[in-house]
Amino acid sequence: MSRRAMEQPRRITDSFPRRRRRGPGRPPGRLKGRRNKDKDNKDKDNKDKVQLKVRDCPRAPSQPPADPALMEMLRRFDLSWEYGPCTGITRLQRWERAQELGLSPPGPIREALLEHRDNPDVTYSLWHEYEL
Description:
Elements: H1 3-6, H2 37-56, H3 68-79, H4 91-100, H5 107-115, H6 120-123
Helix pairs in contact: 4-5
């Protein structure tokens, strides 16, 4: 038998040069034990800005919490894709759009939305806080 026949078969990865692995948690190009003070200060400034944004968000006057059964019904409405996407519009706008398209959205949803029109937890969908 030839020597080549006794060796293990070649793999496709054998034709590529091997790279040294970095230790866990070390980003490329950064030396161990050295810190970038400018980056640390920038991260601190960004954290302060985020905290200010969260504190400065306008809040509606405190509303009594909505009924958990109502919130579950609205959550199911948000999650049913048969009525179309719900990002960027209120639940009532979505309900009315589905009605115009002949999709027959549930009537109790509309009644609940009209009844609790001033409560933002009821008015807006699950994803209203996320940017488009």
